[in-house]
Amino acid sequence: MKSRLRKLFALLIFPLLFSSANIGIAEAGFGITPPYVRNTSLTRNSTYEQQILLVRSDVNVAQKAELTLDAPGIEDWIEIVEGAEIKMPRGEQKVPMTVRVTVPGDADFGEYKGSIRIRTLPDDNQVTGGAVSISLGALVDINLNVIDREIKDFRVRRISVPDLNEGSKLAWLFFPGKIRFDMLLENTGNVDISPSEVEFRIYDRSGKILLEETSNLGRIDEIKPYITETVTAEIPTRLPAGTYIARYRIFNDDEIKQEGDLSLNIMPAGTLQVAGFGFGGLSVPHKVSILLPIFAVIIALIYFFNYRRKNLLGRN
Amino acid sequence: MYTREELPQYVKTAGKVTVLTAIAGFLVFMTAFIFDFGAQELSKVSAQGAASTTLTVLNTPPSFDVFPYEVVESSTTTPTNSGNSVQWAAIGSDSNLAPYFLLICSTNASPTANAAANPSSLGTEPPECDGGAIQWGVSTSTISGQQATVSTTTIDSNDGPSDFAEVNEWYAWVCDDDPESPRCINVPSQGLYSTSSSPFHVNSRPVLTAASNDGPTDPDSTVTFTSTATDPDSVEADDDLRLIVCSDNTTYDNNTNTCGAAEIASSSVTAITNPSAARLLSSPIQDQSYTAWVYLVDEHDHEATGPIQADFVVNNVAPTLLNSNIDLNGGSDLVLSVPAGETTGFNLEFTISDANSCENAGGGDEITGYGVSVFRTSVGTTSCDSTVGPYDPNSCYNSGSGSATWNLSCTETLACSGATSTDVGYTCSFPLWFVADPTEGAESPFVGDSWSAAVRGIDEAATGTMVTGVSSVGLGQFLAIDIEDAEITYGSVEPGQTSGGGMLTATSVALNVGNTGIDQRVEGESMCEEFTVGNDCVHTGTTTIPASQQRFASTTGTAYTDLEAQILSSTTPVELELNVPKTTGTTTLDYQKATTYWGIEVPGTITFAGIYRGLNSFVGAVSEIGEW
Q1: B524 closest CA partner among B541, B544, B540
Q2: Of A287, A306, B84, B527, which residue has the fewest beta carbons closer than 10 angstroms?
Q3: Measured between beta carbons, which residues in chain A are less than 8 angstroms from residue B481?
Q4: How far lies B158's CA from each of B161, B226, B231, B297, B303, in Å?
Q5: pLDDT: is B39 or A207 the higher one?
Q6: What count of CB pairs under 8 Å joins A to B?
Q7: For the domain A22-146, what is the CATH superfamily, name and number?
């Protein structure tokens, strides 16, 4: 009798069990970009960071992203800076997460793989009853390579040249104008790097007549591995005020990493409140014309004091 | 006969005869003087047939104290330009202090000196050259000992027959007009000084017959003015000719043969015929017709009659861009962030230059527009220019498709600063669809590509060529998934029964709303009444349906008990090779999708009747390249 009642109850109730469609989670897309943490030029003791954006279509509900790392053998290397759970507040369409890879000093050289599973969940943990709710997620692929050789390479992402003052004369010395050639570089290698040389060929406004060839003076600041940063090459020019076309080439040793044309506006001296070249920008003859008298005076003084010392010693 | 023996006698008589003769003569003279014999008396005496002496003292001609010379040298090297005067000067003097004239003739034939009416009208009758000679000029009456000058105005040979040849001999005379016997110096002078002596030279004007130029000309190109020109002078050598081109016909200076700031061009190389002059038309220069007046000048700075107008035209040229003046997204990679939608706010900056200036001749804008395309690099501008047609949300966005298709929005951030400026700068923002081809990451069929922007300038009359920015950027992979229906409907199931009559009939449809191919990993939770996220079901045989009771497959017609039906796990995600290709269209109908088929078996042990809750997760993963 009991068994019959139970069966009857089940027949009345269970048909309703999965028929409802009140699902409130998977109503909009979810995505990540980029879907990988990839670096094939890691070295021991290096640190690499990759930012990944978690994005969604529907911003009207608060969600959280649950992160599960699956990277056998390299779990200790990998840190998700924001933690294993990332809030996606209502109204926020995209939320960043940062994966930091720290390669230990004793890591074996080779390839390492893994993944980070991201699953979105309602921030209030509630699911709607009556059916199987759905949550969306995405998989971050991890692909790392630890190598034992240096890679010196960079990518030029952007260049720019602000206006500059023309060179100026002080007595017989000519201080050239200073071209500040800004380069947004991404270090795609695994050691500090900067362009080995930046070369300018400056033409008249029509681009037909070559007026000056010049290249950077001094060293260009280096960029750390895996970083994108702006560095500046300082290039002297002796051209007067005017508008010119410059054809530039950025070198990584013998390789030309980028070449292109840009417009160069040289203003009359003193127009802009920017510093020009100092002693370093002088031509070799002008440098010699300053240094030679100084050296001569120093030598004369040394000689004089030596002579005097000898005389004093002789008297004593 | 003189003998030595009679010497003493000679001495006695020597000188006596001479003395007596002298005394006699003296006495005669004194007698005549004492008795007042005058000239008349003597004449009468003569007329009366007495012996007498007559003497006519003639007027003497003036002479040169300073020989004649050309006041302004007129020589082969420095001729007198036609229309200018040749002037001579000399100083003469007359022995009786009478005034004199300086007469310049073309031959050495003796001139005719004319007599004044009387001594009181001296200096009124100038002499004349011989009838066969050309009289270049005669001075006014000049006081003896003072400088006399005379000049003549030359006439151009182009103006018709005249006395003036290119080379003209001259002979200078000084004459008086003595009433009784006017006279000229016997021998004329041609001057003593090499550069100012006879002959004098007349430089005729060159002849400018026609002038033109080789325009229309582009900015930063050279316009050349040519002429049809000759010069009539030929002594020693033909005169060199040159052109001077001015922007007006009022500022030309005949003395300096320049027109100052109005000068457009002048001959850098002279020629004896048809000289030319060139001018590099440095940009910026507006496209329009420019007034030009062509002057012809010979080597003695004598200009031709004219000038001749030869206006030139500067062509309109299309605007240009430098490849470094196109900046796509500040050098940063393009990151898509809206599943199944457009990601907005990408940035593009560029500067357009026009060699015709950014301001037109009417004062308006020369640069009137632009054409833009943003594309995957291997597509290139050949396929993806800014015109109507090539738009493809996967790889080519172009302004020609219209703002309804691609909402490129640009504002002018560098305004034209006037006719001497060439540049106008723009800053634009634009969207990209979620299907835009990714170029970053090893697992992409587009690795090696990147994204670039190309821009062309448009002005009033020309459209420039597409210029691609020197820096390209990457576009990241965008893994995005959606489930078409947000539920898995199993329908009515009794304990001990399987949904769908034992077949996997419930479905979930995965949509590819990113730019990669996707696969799907599935995991799920057990179902119970009290289930919430993080609060898993307590596993009892009567109130919990384990996750493993759900099975799924990627193909329809799979039975719950088939081996292809995979068992859902709450701990180990199961990859289902859905192989959803990359979506290439932007409408919902275009979305690539794949269906997962589901079934559930409710355990027969379940006794609790009520609402069961559960959660299945669909984790998208980038599929293999070959499955995009």
Answers
A1: B544
A2: A306
A3: 29-31, 136, 138
A4: 8, 22, 10, 15, 13
A5: A207
A6: 258
A7: Immunoglobulins (2.60.40.10)
Q: Which residues of A touch B480 (CB under 8 A)?
A: 29-32, 55, 138
Q: To which residue do tokens 């593009």 refer?
A: B348
Q: Which of residues 220-279 of B touch A (CB under 8 A)?
A: 220
Residue A269 gets which letter from DSSP?
A: T
Asked whether the beta carbons of residue A137 and residue B622 sit closer than 8 angstroms, the reply is: no
Show the CA angle centred on residue A22, arms to residues A20 and A25, nearest 5°. 140
Say which CATH architecture domain A154-285 belongs to: Sandwich (2.60)
| Tokens, residue B118 | 């009387």
Where would I find the beta strands (DSSP E) of chain A? 30-33, 36-42, 47-56, 63-70, 78-80, 85-88, 94-102, 110-122, 132-146, 154-160, 164-165, 168-170, 173-175, 177-187, 197-203, 210-215, 228-237, 242-252, 255-267
ipTM passes above 0.90: no
Sort out which chain A residues have CB atoms less than 8 A from B514's CB and list them. 29, 31, 33
In this structure, which amino acid lies at residue A274?
V
B132 touches chain A (CB under 8 A): no
Please, what sign has the CA dihedral across residues B73, B76, B81, B84?
Answer: positive
Alpha helices by DSSP H, B371-474? 380-383
Q: Which residues have C-beta within 8 Å of that of residue A46, sequence separation ≥ 6?
A: A102, A103, A190, A225, A226
CA-based nearest distance A35→chain B, Å: 6
> Which tokens is B197 given?
């002596």
Quote the minimal CA–CA distance from A7 to chain B in Å: 9
Under an 8 A CB cutoff, do B532 and A126 touch? yes
Name the one residue in this structure whose structure tokens are 């001018």: B279
Among B396, B215, B451, B426, CA closest to B319: B426
Partner residue opposite B339 with nearest CB, options A11, A30, A118: A30
Residues of B in contact with A12 (CB under 8 A): 609
Q: Which residues of B touch A136 (CB under 8 A)?
A: 481-483, 617-620
- When pLDDT is cut at 50, 70 and 90, the band that residue A285 belongs to is confident
- Using CA atoms, how far apart are residues B243 and B16, in angstroms rounded to an integer? 97
B415 vs chain A: nearest CA distance in angstroms?
Answer: 16
B606 min Cα distance to partner chain A (Å)? 9
Mean pLDDT, 10 residues at a time, chain B of 628 residues:
49 57 69 52 47 79 95 93 95 93 96 94 95 95 96 91 92 95 94 90 95 95 95 88 96 92 92 94 95 95 93 96 94 95 96 96 94 95 88 96 95 94 96 96 87 95 93 95 83 87 92 94 88 77 89 94 93 89 94 94 87 87 90
What is the domain partition of chain A in residue ranges?
Answer: 22-146, 154-285
**Is B60 strand, coil or helix?**
coil
Collapsing DSSP to helix, strand or coil, B548 comes out as: helix
> What CA–CA distance (Å, rounded) separates B368 from B473?
28
Q: How close B354 comes to chain A (CA, Å)?
A: 11
Distance in Å from the first CA to the final CA of chain B:
165
Chain A residue whose CA is closest to B525? A132
Q: pLDDT digits over A58-79, tens only?
A: 899 899 999 999 999 999 999 9
Cα B98 to Cα A45: distance, rounded to the nearest angstrom: 123
Contacts of B610 in chain A (CB under 8 A): 13
